[in-house]
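Is this the right way to post C-alpha cells for a design question? Let me know if I should format differently. Anyway, here goes:
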C-alpha cells in the first residue's frame, strides 16, 4: 500500500482483530442506501481510508480488512474512528430498538487495550441507556375521533392509514405534501413550499382566490390563509420531508392532521 507500518500485526494480533470485528459487527451497518445514514463506510470515508473496506466483500471480511489496515498503518486514526463509531452506534441501536449494552462496550474497550489502543477512560465514562424505547401506539380514542371526523379524501386515505399504524410523522408528511400538490394543480404554478403559498394566495390578485375579496373580512381571510399555509410549509411540510425528524406523539400528529384538514376544506371550496 506504500505506507510504513506503525504496528506489527502478529498472528495473535490478527486473532484479536477478528474478535474486535465480532464485537463491532452489530454496532453499525456497513453501508446504507440513505445518504444521511452513518455507517462504517461513511466513517472510514471521512478519514479518506474507505479503500480499506473493499466493496463487494462480506461485511465481516470488510471490517476485518479495514481495522487490520487501520491499526497497522495509522497511529492515531483508530482512536478517531472509534470515537465516531461508538456514538453513532448508540443512536443507531436505539433507533433499532436494540440499545447498545455495557457488556458490548466493555468488550470493545478490553480488545482495543490488548491491541495497544487505550481508550479505557474515554469509553468507560460513556453513560448508556439500555432501556428499550417504547413503541407509541395511537390512543384508540384518537383513532376513533379521526375516523368519525369529516376528513377530506386527501387525508382519510393513506395519511389516516399511516396514523392508525403508528407512523405519525409519515402521516403528517403525506398530508402536507398532498396539500402542496393540490395547490400546485389548482394554481398551475411550478413554485414549491413557502414560496408557492406566498405567491398564489397573495392579494390583491391571487392565483387561488378563496372568496370575492370585496370586504375587509374576506381580504383578511385570504391574507391570513396565505400566512397559515406558508407557515405550514415551513413548520410541517419541510420538517417532516427531511426524514430525520424525531417521532412526534400521536396527540401532536392528530392535531396537525386536523389543521391540514381545515386548510384543505377551504382549498377544496375554490374548485
Amino acid at each position: 500500500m506504500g505506507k510504513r507500518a506503525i504496528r506489527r500485526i502478529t498472528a495473535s494480533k490478527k486473532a484479536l482483530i477478528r474478535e474486535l470485528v465480532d464485537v463491532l459487527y452489530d454496532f453499525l451497518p456497513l453501508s446504507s442506501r440513505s445518504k444521511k445514514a452513518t455507517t462504517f463506510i461513511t466513517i472510514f470515508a471521512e478519514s479518506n481510508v474507505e479503500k480499506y473496506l473493499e466493496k463487494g466483500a462480506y461485511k465481516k471480511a470488510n471490517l476485518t480488512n479495514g481495522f487490520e489496515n487501520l491499526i497497522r498503518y495509522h497511529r492515531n486514526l483508530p482512536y478517531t474512528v472509534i470515537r465516531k463509531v461508538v456514538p453513532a452506534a448508540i443512536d443507531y441501536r436505539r433507533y433499532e430498538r436494540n440499545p447498545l449494552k455495557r457488556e458490548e462496550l466493555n468488550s470493545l474497550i478490553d480488545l482495543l487495550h490488548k491491541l495497544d489502543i487505550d481508550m479505557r477512560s474515554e469509553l468507560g465514562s460513556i453513560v448508556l441507556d439500555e432501556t428499550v424505547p417504547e413503541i407509541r401506539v395511537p390512543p384508540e380514542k384518537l383513532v376513533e375521533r379521526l375516523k368519525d371526523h369529516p376528513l377530506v379524501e386527501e387525508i382519510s386515505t393513506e395519511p389516516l392509514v399511516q396514523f392508525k399504524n403508528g407512523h405519525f410523522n409519515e402521516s403528517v408528511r403525506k398530508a402536507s405534501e398532498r396539500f402542496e400538490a393540490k395547490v400546485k394543480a389548482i394554481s398551475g404554478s411550478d413554485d414549491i413550499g413557502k414560496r408557492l403559498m406566498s405567491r398564489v394566495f397573495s392579494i390583491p390578485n391571487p392565483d387561488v382566490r378563496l372568496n370575492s375579496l370585496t370586504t375587509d373580512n374576506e381580504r383578511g381571510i385570504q391574507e391570513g390563509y396565505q400566512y397559515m399555509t406558508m407557515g405550514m410549509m415551513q413548520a410541517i411540510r419541510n420538517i417532516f420531508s427531511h426524514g430525520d425528524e424525531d417521532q412526534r406523539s400521536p396527540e401532536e400528529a392528530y392535531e396537525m392532521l386536523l389543521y391540514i384538514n381545515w386548510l384543505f376544506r377551504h382549498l377544496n371550496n375554490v374548485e
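Format looks fine. Someone answered above. Worth noting: Residues 11-124 form one domain. The two ends are 68 Å apart (CA to CA).
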